[in-house]
Amino acid sequence: MKSQLQSLIDIALQQLQQQQVIPAEWINKSTLERTKDNTHGDWASNLAMVAAKPAGLKPRDLAEKIVAALPTNDLIQKVAIAGPGFINFYLQAQAEFAVLNQILEQQHNFGRSQYGQQQKVQVEFVSANPTSSLHVGHGRGAAYGMTVATLLEAIGYQVEREYYVNDAGRQMAILATSTFLRYLQLNGAEFKFPSNAYKGDYIFDIAKAVIATEGGKWQQDSVAVFADVPADEIKNEAGEVIYGDKEAHIDGLIENSRKLLGDAGYDVFFRAALDSILGDIKDDLADFGVTYDQWFSEKTLADDGSIDKVVKILQDKGHIYEKGGALWFKSTDFGDEKDRVVVRDNGQATYFASDIAYHLNKYERGLDKIVNIWGSDHHGYIARVKAAITALGLDANKLEVLLVQFVTLWRGDVQVQMSSRSGQFVTLRELREEVGNDAARFYYVSRKSEQHIDFDLDLAKSQSKDNAVYYIQYAHARICRVFEKLAEKQWTFTIADGQNALHALSSDVERELVKKLAAYPEVVQQSALAYEPHQLSNYLKDLASHFHGWYNDHIVLHENTDTRNARLLLSTTVKQVLANGLGLLGVTAPSKM
Hints:
Elements: H1 2-18, E1 32-34, E2 43-45, H2 47-55, H3 59-69, E3 76-82, E4 86-91, H4 93-106, E5 120-124, H5 136-154, E6 158-165, H6 170-186, H7 201-214, H8 222-225, E7 234-235, E8 241-243, H9 246-287, E9 294-297, H10 299-303, H11 306-316, E10 320-323, E11 326-329, E12 340-343, H12 351-363, E13 369-375, H13 381-391, E14 399-404, E15 407-411, E16 414-415, H14 428-435, H15 437-444, E17 453-456, H16 457-461, H17 468-488, H18 495-499, H19 508-518, H20 520-529, H21 533-553, H22 561-584
Parallel strand pairs: 5-6, 5-13, 6-9, 13-14, 15-17
Antiparallel strand pairs: 1-2, 2-4, 3-4, 7-8, 10-11, 11-12, 15-16
C-alpha cells in the first residue's frame, strides 16, 4: 500500500515541478508514514512542509496544490490536510484488507523484498580466538550477527557470512604450550602449572587425545622445559605475590617448548588444540542455528605472503617508518590517536598487520559492503583499521563496524564471573541447555547491540506474559489450537470462505490488527538497513499483544459463519506473519506449547 501511495505522491510532485510550483531540481526527502491516531487517517505525508521553503509557499497552501494534483484512486476514501500541513490519506476498507490477501499469496515470502538488488555484503561475526569454548558473551555476537545477515538477505542482499579464525599469534602459542604441559603431567612429570596458561579441564582432554594417538613420543624432561625461564609467581606467607613476571614466564616456556619439540612436534600440540576447540565452536554455533559460508584462517595470511605484501604496499606509499628496530604505520596521518607497530623489532608481524592484510583481502573480493561485528572492547580498534584502509587507497566508508556490548548473566542475585584462562566461565552451550535456543536467540537481539544486557535466566525460562518470546510463540500456538478445535467441531473453512466474509471484520481492534500486519514489510526493511533486529522483536511483541487482546475479547469460532470465517482468515495471516518474523530471528514457531 505504501508504494502505491508514494507513486501517487510522486506523480503529483512531478506535475507541480513541471508547473514550476516546486523547483525542478529540488530533491524529495519527504516521508510517508502510518499515522498513530486513526482520526488522522491511515497514512501521512510531510511533503508540503519540507517543500514549502523551496516553493516559496506556506505549507498548508502547498498542501492544497499537492492534494489537487493527486491522481484519483479507488483505494483512497479521502485526503485531508491537517496541522501545519500534513497530508493525511484515509483508505477504503477493501484497501486495508488487501494486505491479508497479499500475506496469503506470498506466505513465507511476505515481508521479503529485492531492495538490496543482490549487492554483495559480507558479515563477519563472532571470530573468537579458538582457545576455549564460546561463552555467553560470544553468544550475543553470534545471535546478533546471524540475524543481521538473515535480515539483509530478506531484503535482497547477497550475503556472505564469515568467521575469522585467529589461529596465529601469541594466544595460540600459549594454548599449544598449555596442552604440551598437560601432556607432560599426564605422563608423570611434576611441576607447578603456569598461572598464565590455559587451565580448563578441556586442556587435559586435548592432551589425553594426543597421548591416545602419539603415546609418549613427545615427552620431554620438565627441567629442560623450565630451564632459564623467568619466575612465574613467588608469594609470601600472606599469599601476596612479591616477585615474578607471569608474561615472561609463559613466553619462556613457549620458546623452550618450540626448541625441544621442533616444528613437527610443536605442530602436533598446536593442531590438536586448534582442531579440537574449533570443532567444538563449529558444533556449538551450528546447534545454535548459526552457520557460516567461510571460515577464514588468519594463519594463511602469513603463509601465502599476504602480510608481507600489504606492509610492502604501505612502505611504497610512504606510510611506514622504522623506529627502535620496528616498523610503524603512520596511522595518525589518517585520524588515529597514535601510530601503530606492524612489524616488531624481532621481525614478527603484529596482529594489526594481519588485520590490515585481512581487510585488503576482503576488498579484493569485490564486495559492495563489509560489515564487521566486534565486541565493544574493540571500539578503539576501528580508527586504526579504517586508517589502514584509507592508506591503501580504498574506500573506508565501505566498511561498517558494529559493536556488541557485554552480557551479564545472573543466577538469582548472584552475578556469574567469566575467565577463559581459568576455564571457570558459563559457556554458550550451558546457557542454551538451560534456557533453550529460542529464548537465547530472542533475548540476545531484543535490545540495541551497543546496549548492555543483564540476562535474566528465570525470566527466560518462565511461561508468562512477561517472557516476550514465550508470549509471541504462544500466540502462534494459540492459533494452531483454534484450527484443531475447528476440526473437532467438524466445521469447514477455506481461504475463499474467509475472503468472501471480510466485511465481518468491522471492529476497531480488528482494523488495528490488520494495520499491524501491513506494517511488517516496513519493519523488516528498517530492521535490516539499521542493523537493528530489536525493531523486529519489538514489532512481534506488539503484534502478539494485539492478537491476544483481540482473541480474549472476540470469539473466533463464532456461531455466525461469516464472522467465524473472517476471524479465521485474520488468525491465519497473524500466524503467518508471526512465523515469518520469528524465523528471521532464528526462533521457532511452535504449534503446541
